[in-house]
Amino acid sequence: MSSEVEETLKRIQSHKGVKGVLIMNSEGLPIRSSLSPEDTENYAALVSQLAFKASGVVRTLDDTDELAFLRIRSKKHEIMIAPDKDYVLVVIQNPHEN
């Protein structure tokens, strides 16, 4: 990965409350992760399915629109998903550590 990408990942990871960063390709395969191998596999499989479904919902509601960002917050975690044409960026954080 380019040094610019590495610096961006380090900057994201350094924010208070961030538990992990995951980058997947458009097929949901992990490319880079700061999570454990088990968590990487779980998040990649589940989040890629969720992003695909959410993208489909957005396109169904308006075929000229596309999913830009998805944020899910539970009592324990917040998962932020930024899909792109070739990659999906996922950031997992503890929302109570802000």
| Estimated structural class | alpha+beta
Largest sheet: 5 strands, antiparallel
Distance between the termini: 29 Å
The number of strands is: 5
Indicate the low-confidence ranges by residue numbers: none
Radius of gyration: 14 Å
Beta-strand residue percentage: 25-35%
Order of helices and strands: HEEHEEE
Which helices and strands occur, and which strands form pairs?
Blueprint: H1 3-14, E1 18-25, E2 30-33, H2 37-61, E3 70-73, E4 78-83, E5 87-93
Antiparallel strand pairs: 1-2, 1-5, 3-4, 4-5
Structural description of this entry:
Strands 2-1-5-4-3 form a five-stranded antiparallel β-sheet, sandwiched between helices. The protein has two helices and five strands. The chain is an alpha+beta fold and 98 residues long. The model has no long low-confidence stretch (mean pLDDT 91). 38% of the residues lie in helices and 30% in strands. It is globular and about 35 Å long.
Short descriptors:
98 residues, alpha+beta, 5-stranded antiparallel sheet, 5 strands, globular
Short description:
It contains two helices and five strands, in the order H-E-E-H-E-E-E. With 98 residues, it is of the alpha+beta class. The longest helix is centred in the middle third of the chain and has 25 residues.
